[in-house]
Amino acid sequence: MNGWFGDYPASLLIDWTDDSVWLQNPRQLTPSDLQHWLQPIRQLFTGKNNPGPRRRHWQPGWSQTQYHQAFSRVQHYLAAGDCYQVNLTMPFCCPEDLTEQSPLNLLQTFEPRFGGYLKSPDGTLFSVSPERFIRIDGQRIETCPIKGTLPRGKTAQQDQQLAQQLRDSDKDLAENLMIVDLLRNDLSIHAEPHSVKVEKLFELESHANVHHLVSTITARRKVGDCAVDVISDAFPGGSITGAPKKRAMEVISELEAQPRGAYCGSLGYFDDAGHADFNILIRTIEATQQGAFCWGGGGITVASTADDEYQEILAKVGKILATPL
C-alpha cells in the first residue's frame, strides 16, 4: 500500500445537508455510465454490502512505558543536536476486517476539512484529516501545517480556557514556527524568487476532538514547473517528520514500533484544470482484510514532556477509535 493511483473521468459531490448528489464530469454520460457510478454509492450508504457500525476494540502498539522509552531516545537525539523536532508516533490495532464498513459515522462526527475515503483491492482508507499538505491553484501553491494541540474542554468555559492556553503556549508556538520555516524551504524549490509568504501564523482551529494551531504558507509556482514535482519534492510533510527532515526521518525509522504504511502519507488529486489538493493522512484508519491500524503522534521538542505527549496522542485518536465503524 505504498501508492494507490487512479484516473477518474468524473467525480461525485455529496451534500449531507439535503442528501443530494452532484455528478461533475467534463463529458456527456450515458445512462449505463450513470448507473456504473451511482450504484456503488447507493450500496455504500445504504449498508447493503456491509454489516452495521459498532464500536471496535483497538489495542495500542506500545504501552505507556514503551512510549516513554522511545520518547527518552528522542530527547537524547535532541540534546545531541541531531534534530530540533521529531514527530514520534505509535499505532493502535484492530484485528477485524473493516474494509467494507461505511465511512459515514466518521465523516459526520468529525466533518473533516481534508478528510477522505478510498477503497481499493488492497484495502480501505478512512481519513478525517484536519490538515492540508499542499494545494495548487494555477500558479498559486499553499500549505497549511498543524503544530500545537490541546483537547477540547468538557464545558464551554473550559473549552475557551484551553483554546487560550494553546494560543499562549511558548512551547507550541515554537514547535509550529520550526515547521513553518521547514515548509517555507520546501515550497521554495519550485517557487518564483521572493514569492514565498507566511499568510497566517498560529491561527487557532477547533475540531471535534482537539484545538490546533495552524499556519498558512503560500508561494507562486515557477512557470513550467510541474504540479506533480511540487508535491513530490515537498514529500513527506514536515509537520509529520520533524526538523531537519532527513535526520528526523532516520530517528523515526529507528525508534517507531513498525512502518507507518499510509499514515502520514497523503491523499488527494490532480485535475485537468490545473488544480491539485492533497492532505496529510493523519487521523486515518488504514484497513485490510487482516486488520486495521490507526496511528497517533506529535512533535517532540526539548520542551516536551512524555506524559503530556502521550495524553496528546489519546486526545487526537481517542474519539476516532470510539466512533462506531
Attribute tags:
325 residues, alpha+beta, Anthranilate synthase, seven-stranded antiparallel sheet, 8 helices, 33% helix, Anthranilate synthase component I family protein, ADC_synthase, Chorismate_C, Anth_synth_I-like
Structure annotation, total helices: 8
Number of structurally distinct domains: 1
Global morphology: globular
Looking at the overall shape, the CATH architecture is 4-Layer Sandwich
Describe the structure.
Pfam families: Chorismate_bind. InterPro entries: ADC_synthase, Anth_synth_I-like, Chorismate_C. Residues 64-316 form the Chorismate-utilising enzyme C-terminal domain. This is Anthranilate synthase component I family protein. The longest helix is centred in the middle third of the chain and has 19 residues, at 170-188. The protein is of the alpha+beta class and 325 residues long. Strands 3, 4, 5, 6, 12, 15 and 16 form a 7-stranded antiparallel sheet that branches. Strands 7, 8, 9, 10, 11, 13 and 14 form a 7-stranded antiparallel sheet that branches. Strands 1-2 form a two-stranded antiparallel sheet. The two termini are 22 Å apart. It has a single domain (11-39, 58-322), classed as Anthranilate synthase (4-Layer Sandwich), CATH 3.60.120.10. It has helices at 31-46, 64-79, 104-110, 156-167, 170-188, 227-234, 245-255, 306-322, and strands at 11-15, 20-24, 59-60, 85-94, 116-120, 123-127, 132-137, 140-144, 146-151, 197-206, 210-220, 242-243, 268-270, 275-279, 284-288, 291-300. A hairpin with a 2-residue loop joins strand 7 and strand 8.
